[in-house]
Specification:
Phosphatidylinositol:ceramide inositolphosphotransferase 1; rod-shaped; mainly alpha; phosphotransferase activity, for other substituted phosphate groups; Sphingomyelin_synth-like; transferase
Length: 48
């Protein structure tokens, strides 16, 4: 439990909210890293 003072009946709400925020943060990081690698163009990583 992250916040045990809320009681056991509301613990699942905190856990669900924490999981949702964590997954959103991970997805946001994946989108940022995807755009960071895709934006420079196709010739950025394979120069001769």
């Amino acid at each position: 439990m992250i916040l045990p003072e809320l009681g056991k009946e509301r613990g699942y709400i905190i856990d669900t909210l924490f999981t949702f925020v964590f997954l959103t943060f991970v997805l946001f990081l994946r989108i940022i890293t995807f755009y960071a690698t895709q934006l420079p163009g196709p010739n950025y990583h394979c120069r001769e």
